[in-house]
Amino acid sequence: MSIAILHLTKGGALLAERLASAFPNSRVIHDEAPIAEAVKAVWGQYDGIVFIMAAGIVVRTIAPLLADKKTDPAVVVADEKGQFAVSLLSGHLGGANELARRVAGITGGTAVITTASDTLGLTALDLWAKANGLVPEPPEILTAASAILVNNGVIRVHAPGFETCSLPPDILAVDNPDDADIVISNRIDLPPGTLAFRPRNLVVGVGCNRGVPAADIELAIRETLANYMFSMHSVRNLATIDIKRDEAGIIECASRYGWDIHFFGPDRLNSVSGISPSPAAKRATGAAAVAEPAALLSAVADKILVGKTKWKKDVTIAIAEARFTL
Questions:
Q1: Above 70 in pLDDT, residue 112?
Q2: pLDDT digit string (tens) for 16-30?
Q3: Rounded distance, CA 26 to CA 1, Å?
Q4: Angle at Cα 25 formed by Cα 20 and Cα 31, nearest 5°?
Q5: 306-313: long-range contacts (C-beta < 8 A, 24 or more apart)?
Q6: Which end of the chain has fewer CB atoms surrounding its CB within 10 Å, N or C?
Q7: pLDDT tier for residue 170 given thresholds of 50, 70 and 90
Q8: Do the beta carbons of residue 262 and residue 294 sit within 8 Å?
Q9: Are the CB atoms for 34 and 7 separated by under 8 Å?
Q10: 105/130 same-domain check
């Protein structure tokens, strides 16, 4: 975790150097320029920022810079004697709660944590979801789900078709969706009002002609998923033949969404049985098919979820479902 440490006073400078010696990837900043300019210069450049100054100054300074809790850095405010380390911003996902605890551990002070799940000793749903590769859709439902957990002390989860193992004691698996508070599903045809967490367990096999733009590949994936009622948020990675390692459209599309791409040679693709062969693909690539076997190999699955689907003759899409365990 990269950390910027900002201070205003001589006492703050002493503590800043002490903290910097304990955090290998850190930088102490004491700028003669106004504090707002110094903060603006480092905002977004570090995973966390420790301010050694009054909380009021920090609040007024960072207010114009706030964007989203998924992207804002962890912010911790400490007094110059190190008596308190306050987790002010991005407590869970950003890591401010843990950063505050580390600062307090160094100074011998007290970490001040105000997030409800921490103070009540409950699971932090955002961290649990992240650790399990789950994506709340839309993101705002995470607040609603967290409120259920805080108010009831437990939250009930329905995960049809998925294995559950070693769930936290306050997250209960239920068989009946009517009894569930949240549903773990890659399907978009859920009842209205469902709080859905999307597992990233869909592998999209891609075959395409040379030079197909990334926008066309993205649209082909989007339309295929929507037609078969699957969430875009559940895509784990793309898969294709190894001669497409330099295919700009596939590479750019994957990069936009942070997807990995798994590549397979013709021999591996041809080793997969039960696929729909294509003479054209065989002539062009040496593989009897690309999208379907690539998806199956990447997902380590033996059954295709969505068979090869042509999109405007330039792109072929197939979808397989990887094993997923909570």
A1: yes
A2: 999 999 999 999 997
A3: 8
A4: 55
A5: 306/224, 306/228, 306/230, 307/276, 308/205, 308/207, 308/276, 308/278, 309/224, 309/227, 311/216, 311/219, 311/220, 311/223, 311/224, 312/216, 312/220, 313/209
A6: N
A7: very high
A8: yes
A9: no
A10: no
Is the domain of 193 the same as that of 214?
no
Cα(157)–Cα(240) distance, integer angstroms: 34
**Contact between residue 95 and residue 48 where contact means Cβ atoms under 8 Å apart:** yes
Q: What tokens does 26 get?
A: 């850190």
Taking only the tens place, the pLDDT of each residue in 226-260 is: 999 999 999 999 999 999 999 999 999 999 999 99
- Is 0.85 topped by the overall pTM? no
Is 326 a member of any domain? no
Q: Is residue 177 part of a domain?
A: yes
User: In degrees rounded to 5, what are phi and psi of residue 227?
Assistant: -65, -30
Q: Does residue 119 fall inside a structural domain?
A: no
CA atoms within 13 A on the CB side of 180: 20
CA distance 286 to 235: 27
Can you give the residue range of the structural domain that contains 253? 202-321
State how beta strands 202-208 and 315-321 pair.
antiparallel
